[in-house]
Protein 1
Amino acid sequence: MIDRKLLSLNPMISAFIGPETKAKIKAAIVSEMILMLPDLAERFATGLEEHLDMQTLVTDRIRSFELEKLEQIILEISSRELRAIEIYGGVLGFIIGLLQVGLILL
């Protein structure tokens, strides 16, 4: 990138700057970017918080779904949990049934 920028600014400058100088320029740019990164990230996050209302965005997206599509998404997400509830319910029902039969036979 440094070579391209120097060539675009002035081709003569690129001819006189050696690899050591380019490495120093690169190191200086990288160190400055590292120092600026936390401030830039904070500004970016603040800007997102100010201009992006997640609750409204999610609510609008959910309202725009067709009812069948929304039901399909919810069932896909919760299918594993619902399956576990069915299995536990079946096992519990079987145990309760055995207990009732045992009480009747006593």
Protein 2
Amino acid sequence: MAAVCVYADLVAVAVQALAGSGVHVASVATAFPSGRASLRTKLADVAEAVSAGADEVDMVIDRGAFLSGRYAAVLQEVRAVKAACGDARRQVRLEAGELATLDNVRRASWLAMVGGADFIKTSTGKVNPASTPATVLVMLEAVRDFAGATGVDVGVKAAGGIRTAKDAVRYLVLVRETVGQAWLHPDRFRFGASSLLNDLLMQRSKQRTGAYAGPDYFTLD
């Protein structure tokens, strides 16, 4: 597990609970999941998470600004949040399900990366469709091209709608085929595992016992 993601008011609790585990603490910020707040409020949200000890901060882009063509405003906000994060890694959620087209997904990916994102993420997990193979493919192509143009590697996270180990394997093949073996690492590719975890636990149990157990024997979301 790369990181556990919590709201800012639970960061201190998570930091204490995970001390010495090697698992990072990430915090959603910038008026998650809607992104509808003033920049001052969003930066205060980020400051609270960072001061509590978050290793990573998740922001969501202003989809209203993006869809109305105010790309400079989106970029400026991404950069402002980057500055407020200090040493914490910054992850930018695109909410691809609201961006309407794959061209918009690519454009939003580039805006996030030019703004200094360490990771770009498909979605908040609150909007359908969230993560799809087509969306992730476009984002992987964007980080590949960005790395080629700048020498900077940006990670990708597929979040939302990935519920089974078989789904996860399909995404891993997509990563391997598009950006190569080096991206198969938590610093470059991750899954949102809140729904996936249950199936992974069931598959591990199947390997040990030879039989499947019901999901209620593990974790329910």
